[in-house]
Structure prediction request, 104 residues.
Amino acid sequence: MVSQGNMLLAFSSTCNCWHSVDLSGQERILEQRTGALVAVAVTNLRVLGFSAETGKWHQTGLKGAETILSVEAQGKVAVVKTSIRALGFGSPKGEWVEAVFRLK
Prediction:
C-alpha cells in the first residue's frame, strides 16, 4: 500500500494492477498496515481495507468520538480495535465485520 497525496494505492497480484481510493480534503491517515493479501488504513473519518483477492477497497465509517486503540494486519486478515468495537477484515470476501463491546 502506498499513500500519495489524497489517494491510497494498493497492488493486486491477482490482476497485476493498482487499485486506488480517494481521500477527502479533511481526511488524514492515522495508521496503515499490510499483510500478505490485505492492507488496512485508518483515517480520522473511516477505516479502509483492501483485499488482494477481490481487488477492491472496502470501508466502514468511524462513529462519533470513537478512538483507535490498535491496528494489525497479517496474512489474509486485518483487525482494528477501537474504544467501542473490534473490526475484522478478511481478504477472501473483502468485508468488514464488527463486534461491539458491551459496557458493564
Summary: Residues 65 and 87 are 16 Å apart (CA to CA). The chain has one domain: 2-100.
